AAA+ ATPase domain-containing protein
Amino acid sequence: MNVKMPYTKPLNQDNSKLQSEVISLFKSGDLKWNTGQNVQEKKEGLNYIIQGLRKMELWIEREYDEKKKQLQLQYYSRREEASKRLDTLEKYEKGEVVQDSNGNAGNHQQQQKKQGDKDQKSEFSNALSEAIVKDKPNVKWTDIAGLEGAKSALQEAVLLPIKFPDFFEGARTPWKGILMYGPPGTGKTFLAKACATEAEGTFFSVSSADLISKYVGESEKLIKTLFSMAREQKPSIIFIDEIDSMCGARGEGQNDSSRRVITEFLVQMQGVGHDDKGVLVLGATNLPWALDTAIRRRFEKRIYIPLPDVKAREFMIQNSLKKNKTTLTQEQFEDLAIKTEEYSGSDISVFVRDAVYEPVRKLQSAKKFKQISVDGQLKWTPVADNEEGTPKSFMELNQGDIAIPDVCYNDFLLALKKSKKSVSKDQLGEFERWTKEFGQEG
């Protein structure tokens, strides 16, 4: 600090008020500096002292003779001390080990940084705690049609190491990464739900939205915190849906933040100094060819989840109608399974839902109703215009008075005319080519 001493002709004035202000400012500044727990508080203390020095300059201007000389000595001493404290503050901000004006050695800034990192980790942990699946989805392996290869691989990676850990020694180590890929709606997320239901460990379900932040460096810290939480709560499974949106191939046009995210993910999945035993990363994607090559290598098992075959489609249609009354025969179920060739699991779900709406549509369009006995109670059911019945609108009836017609084969034929498959043959060709080169059949 280089404060120039002004010189003016001494005046004979009452300086008691100035004296009181200077003493008060110095006292407040020393207290704030000595008790400050962070850089900001110490900076506030130094500001009080600097204000005191400026007031003291004015006080010195108004004194003379011996009094003025004494004040000048005190002023220079205070100014030198303030200059040292300013240097100390700069070192605090740089994180260097310093010794403050009271002779106390310490590294306050580094302590503050550690505390800040701890608080930030706690904040990230709280944000990611919502990703932990606490309530089991209640999806069992038997609820999944077909996909025997995928189910076997997942049971091998998820259930066996938890139930029989002694089996996995030496070269027989559990899989650390499994990638499920295939067309949309084939059951990848459904398989993950089955893992969450059957596994006894902690299940994290995250997407790129949970891990990507607009703030620089925060995405990497979220990924680091996620894996740290998984290691603390192992055995654990980290399921990342649509992983291609976060770990796409690195290229010249890619920004630095995306590169850092991929790098951090690579380090956490299989980096030096990390104990990954008991942690499985489960990824799902519709675009496996879009993944970075290093990310692809981290997934040791890459399982193709194809469109359901005819037996799987038949099971899906029957399973979807468990809670609906239907008149379909076994032959009709088999026929519908054949007619839905190249439909995904999601397409079949939409198709069945559309078919079971047909009885409701009959209620809406019916102009005649007749009474039938249902469990010993008379109820109204719709009839065709050319059949005998009582002219009515279903809006005139109460819910308890209506007998909704059973779902029949004809309802499915009507729904089949309106439903369309969502996966093209060209897309299937791309998946088959990628499977031959990098994957395995599920």
Summary: The chain has 16 helices and eleven strands. The chain has three domains: 16-102, 130-307, 310-422.
